[in-house]
Amino acid sequence: MTLFLVMDGLGNVPVFNAVLSRLEPRHRRRVIARELLIALGILLFIISLRMIFPASSEAGEDAAVEEPFIAPLAVPLTAGPSTVAVLLLLGSNQPEQIGDWAVALLLAWTGTTIILVGSPYLMGMILVILATQRVLNGIREFARSL
Fold first, then answer.
1. Does residue 88 surpass a pLDDT of 80?
2. Where are the alpha helices (DSSP H) in the chain?
3. In the chain, what is the straight-line distance between the N-terminal and C-terminal CA atoms, in Å?
4. Alpha carbon of 71 to those of 48, 50, 135, 137: distances in Å?
5. Which end of the chain is more exposed for a tag (fewer CB within 10 A), N or C?
């Protein structure tokens, strides 16, 4: 659960939607899948390095054109400093459970992927819920002021 929260799929929804807004829905899903697979590869690579070498490592990429590639969606949004730090901390504090951390990472990545692929629909629902709540709050405050 910690990794899922640190990967911050819900928090990344606005950025993913803004960066990918000009892409068609089918192409958007492919870009999200590609970026999240790259992020997963980077995070699994960090775990595997911890298995081989006890010292910590850093990962960074730099590239962005019309369609984002690796930066900013895979790194730093998904495989960002906080996710890497949590993985390094978990791996160094309990190295005997590195397999468990890999499974936890895969589960967190799966949840994040589901959220981000469904984010255009999710954001619409969230905006409707927020708007409805604001209207209801306004009506309640108005009724109280009478």
1. yes
2. 2-7, 9-19, 25-52, 81-93, 98-117, 119-145
3. 46
4. 22, 24, 38, 40
5. C
